[in-house]
Amino acid sequence: MKRISKVQKEIEVLAKRVPQLSEEQKEWARRNFNYYRVVRQGTTETRCPDCKGNVSIYHNEGGHKGSKWCKDDNTIICPHCGAKVQVRILPADYKVGINKHQEDFFQVMNVIGGWQVTRLIYMQRYCYIRKENTPWGYYEVCQAWNHPAYKQTYFRSFPKKGMLMHHPFNPYKLYDFPLKKDEQGNYLKDENGNYIIDCVLSKLEPRRAGRANYFSTDTIYPGARISPAFKQRGITMQLVKTIGHNAMWLFESVSQGKPMYETLLKAKEYKLFKELADEWRRGNADKLFSAWKICQRRHYDIHQNLSEWYDLVSMLIDEGKDIRNPHYVCPADLHAAHQALLDAKNRREERERERLRREWDEQERQRAEEAMKDAIKAEADYIKNHRQYFDISIPTSNGLTIVVLKTIEEFKNEGSTLNHCVFRMGYYRRVNSLILSARDADNNPIETIEVDIPSLTIKQCYGQHDTFTPQHKGIMEAMTANLWQIGQRRLNA
Which DSSP letter does residue 220 get? Predict the structure, then answer.
């Protein structure tokens, strides 16, 4: 992949200085995540995957009946080594050997040449019933490079080849990018044997907050370092964990060169900083920051309910209100103002839904009229091809009478009464099919029968919603015994 800028060339050179994972980091990752152990239903103890000591299990066997996997895993602490063991209980008759493909992510943060490098590490292993779990495998998925002098985040990625297609465990769409090749056209690999994808030329979009987000601040190795340039702007590891947000988004937001981020950090408005980091991508960050400054000047306490105030201002923006007006952004009763705005929004959305329903109903009515017009045009052909069968009347053993549908109106009533597609799918257009209806003494349709005329076989026989009725057996017996009437009229036609 060709480099076209000095920044990309600089990152390529500095990437060679990124250290390998240490044994301490791997040990922390193993201790930080749960071990999985799968046992049979009814088992009372298992072995710790770490120290091999016995661990007691207490569970409710009745809670797992009828379920392939148990609904609630039992997380227990090994009394010998303190490892967390998450026990998954299988039904007694479950016969699969491999029970879980366990995967987890954690981050390592380094400072390389003034750049803040956030590295995402993917760890995986297999868990078995009859033998020990496999050791953890560690793979560096990608690196996020941030620098105060550059507004965007640069990425370099080193995914496993299998992860290119197994994207649910990949926080970025790395599988959309080609593998890197040398001059001879051979795929390049790193020293660990992983295929290399260099995405430094493109800015990848991470998953939004609230979805599966593997760059979580809860999985950062404790020995993380912050670049001095970012420390001067107020970013510390304590701040990263206090915000509880994507670490690289924090670095990227500060690098935007906008004073509002620095102002919020100095004011220790960490929660609002987190929300504005998201709203920056929607284009509402400046408006929200302006509303916050108005509240600061008027000494309005937004922390009485920050989430409600934030939701209030967001709705004001969506409604097109003047958020520079203190009447809107500094209400005397925050809850009442929020509820009134929410009710108005719900009423507007309900009116919009009602309008869409009316449009849909009108379209359905027009489609029904057009379908009826086409059906009326085809009625003459139907009568011409099936007139010789109209006098068929077959009694059944359960008091029903089977008759042939003669007009388009009868097809329509049959389909609407039994809620099936005999009219909607235009069965009256089928030249080689004869449609009959099994009816009770009050002439109410019970089941609809389709007979293939050339072969004299019953293709289908269904009642309401294409289901069988209690009279189905009697109807089938009567039809089978009287198929000769259809064959006789076909020969006499």
Answer: B
Residues β-bridged to residue 195:
189
Residue 363 identity? Q
Going by the DSSP 8-state scheme, the letter that residue 153 receives in this structure is P
Question: Which residue, among 76, 70, 71, 89, has the nearest Cα to 35 in the 3D structure?
Answer: 76
Reported as type and span, the H/E element at residue 84 is: strand 84-90
Q: What are the residue ranges spanned by the domains of the chain?
A: 1-30+101-256, 386-492
> Do the strands 84-90 and 35-40 form a parallel or antiparallel pair, or are they unpaired?
parallel
Fold of 386-492: Aminopeptidase (3.40.630)
Cβ pair 387, 469 in contact under 8 A: no
Q: pTM for the whole thing?
A: 0.53
Give 140's strand partners: 121
| 3-state secondary structure at position 469 | coil
Give per-residue pLDDT as tens, 428-483: 888 889 999 999 988 899 999 999 998 889 999 999 988 899 999 999 999 999 99
- Please give the structure tokens belonging to residue 478: 């009567």
Rounded (5°) CA angle 16-228-172: 50
Q: What share of the chain is helix, strand, coil (3-state, %, to 5)?
A: 40, 20, 40
Are the C-beta atoms of residues 36 and 102 closer than 8 Å to each other?
yes
DSSP letter (8 states) at residue 361: H
